[in-house]
Design a protein that fits this description.
Elements: H1 2-15, E1 24-31, E2 36-42, E3 47-52, H2 89-92
Antiparallel strand pairs: 1-2, 2-3
């Protein structure tokens, strides 16, 4: 549901002239005569620099499952390293995942 709403909202904002730079890391923001200059890099390291009136930075959630060896106790994350959860999950792994709902 959130994903669908986000896509539709983004379409509306794009029609109004807003630009989006997704999956980028902000390296530097500096003031300019007309607003701000934003320097970013994408996941391949490509530098992107643009000028804007204002900047909205939104941080998403990323699962922290690397190097935890959760597969050794029978937990198999999906391709994005997320732990699959259903209504029986906390009972089955209660001993290991006391913070399963915290995000």
């Amino acid at each position: 549901m959130d994903k669908e709403i986000s896509k539709e909202f983004m379409k509306i904002l794009k029609k109004q002239g807003l630009n989006f730079h997704l999956k980028t890391k902000v390296e530097k923001i500096s003031k300019s005569k007309n607003g701000v200059i934003v320097e970013t890099s994408d996941k391949e390291g490509k530098k992107i620099k643009f000028e804007s009136d204002v900047v909205l930075i939104s941080v998403g959630r990323k699962p922290y499952t690397e190097n935890l060896n959760i597969e050794q106790i029978g937990i198999n994350p999906d391709e994005k390293k997320r732990i699959k959860v259903n209504k029986n999950y906390p009972k089955k792994y209660k001993k290991y995942l006391c913070y399963w709902r915290c995000y």
